[in-house]
Amino acid sequence: MMVERGGWRVRTIRLWLPLGVYMIFTLFPFYWMAVTSVKPNSELYNRKIMPLLVYHPTFKHYVDLLTETNFMVWTWNTLLVSAISTAISLVFGVMLAYPLARMRFAGSALIAFGVAATYLVPQPLLFIPLADIIYSLGLNDTLTSVILTYPTLLIPFCAWLLMGYFRSVPHELEDAARIDGATRLQTMFKVFLPLCTPGFISAGIFAFTLAQNEFLYALIFLTQTDVRTVPVGAIAELVKGDVFYWGQLMAAALLGSVPVAIIYSFFVEHYVAGLTAGAVKQ
Amino acid sequence: MIIPPVLFLLLLVGYPFVYGIWLSLEDRPVAHAGKFVGLANFIADFHDPVFWQVVQNTFVYTFFATVLKMVGGLGLALVMNQDFRFKNTIRAMMLLPFIVPTVLSTIAWMWLLDPAFAPVNWFLRWSGIANPGPSWLGNPRLAMMSLIIVNVWRGLPFYGITLMAGLQTISPELYEAATIDGASTWDRFVYVTLPLLKPVIFIVTMFSVIFTFADFQLVYVLTRGGPANATHLFATYAFDVAMGGGQLGMGASIALAMLPPLALIIIAMSLYMKPHKS
Lengths: 282, 278
Prior knowledge:
With 282 residues, chain A is mainly α. Chain A has helices spanning 7-37, 41-44, 60-68, 71-102, 108-120, 127-136, 143-168, 172-179, 184-195, 197-213, 216-221, 230-237, 246-266, 268-276, and strands spanning 239-240, 243-244.
């Protein structure tokens, strides 16, 4: 639409200049992370030198992070918890979304409303009672505590996204399968769900990044180093009293972002579809 | 089929919600039995100057962060909605702040704002604007401003990319028709783009208001509510009282104080999002 004549001058003012400003603002913190993580301490804590460059790059902080802290354990915990809670949420999401999208039954409007409302309830409203419940069940300092609670954040989202997706799939194929004598369940598993693979990828990627990002429940439920996730481990153990190990912290920030960033880069389109679902009706 | 997930959510969202209301009516030190005290916790909140400071902080934080994200995000969407090379790669990179775990990127911001060794103050010293340069997280006003900037940094891609998706649904024919009728670029923006984008802007903003209002991570990492409670929000203050001070009942009452303004938005949005019969 905006292909307008006017040459490079107009294009610079309308496109490249503002885009450049946005990109510097967006990406600068990542550059700062990267450059800090390879600086020797003598450069890190020297007020005299220009902080944006590194003169004698070193991987010492990475080596220290991987050998002297439990970073590997935290990474494993984070991936495990995210993967399991995403899987649970997808299954439960389908169990909610399929009936809501394809069947008529009493109370369906109420459940749909409940799902949307649950999605919008922010965690800080629930963390105190949940902490009390988890502690009284003796689940604190187990990964079970977060595997149980993360799906409460992810299911409503998955269900809601899948519901929209399910509705966009035409009925005809299922009708044909039913006429050929397939049962409702057969139709669902053999015909309907395979058609919805892109929807599952969108919901799964989005749920996975949400789970990786979760902090509040992990902070409250996980107080032992061997069950911590990356965000909690970094905050609780790489900051000792008032001493910040900035080199290690930045190395941890970068490495902790890598798994999400890699998965995300393969599925950007699906992620964007998940992000904009609901707000934009196709 | 629908029963297991509904039960699961009732058990782990519905029950804690009701239990939270019950807790807020109790005097409940951690690891002790609770005692029913009625509305005493809420009355104590009402007389607590820190509570009112928290209310004010939360509204200031939410208002400025939301306005900046909305305006900045709309700008980003308009810029990105042009044709240029590497558009998809650039769009993917612009989304990074939103997908990278917030705690980790916030730690990077904390280090970026470090008064002694970070580029911000180095630049101020180098250019002679200020020496030694301000303590970005140590001064009440600057700390709130820093929090808002980091929140905008994280939330901007969500606005930008969603609004851009909204822009793409607007038919080019409408712009052509408007141009033929003599509309300027500004006219087209005000009379075509904005009205058609209104539903998307509404949804995105409501979303963002809910999660900005109830923000926890940014404040916990950057300032822990300090200096002198100047940046405490509902969530971090409730956390301090409940987890730090061990007063579960008081903490629950502070968290629940978020509910009235949030409930209005949540109910309005849930009704709006309910799939329309067609």
